[in-house]
Write a structure and sequence with these properties.
Length: 94
């Protein structure tokens, strides 16, 4: 089921993970690594461009006019907990 919620904050985590906060207050973790095998996202792999992730118009965007649907981010992410293993080396963008 697709849920349409805007992203209000993104933090780039190690190993191509994104920590996302949605408009309903939920904080979720999204594994972007599988998307790096697909166009147009393949151009983010192995570059610093991935760390340029930022929120624009309710979703996550990157330099070069790349973005991903917020419903994809929500539906394919997992809720964050205090026990989440990915908690270091983050870069935050609002």
């Amino acid at each position: 089921m697709e849920t349409l919620l805007d992203v209000v904050r993104v933090k780039v985590k190690p190993k191509y993970m994104l920590e996302l906060e949605f408009e309903n207050g939920e904080v979720r973790l999204f594994d972007f690594a599988p998307y790096l095998k697909k166009k147009p996202f393949d151009q983010l792999k192995g570059t610093t461009s991935f760390y340029g992730a930022h929120v624009n118009y309710g979703t996550v965007c990157w330099p070069g006019d790349l973005d991903i649907a917020p419903e994809t981010l929500y539906d394919n992410s997992v809720p964050m907990t205090d026990a989440s293993p990915i908690n270091d080396l983050s870069v935050e963008s609002v």
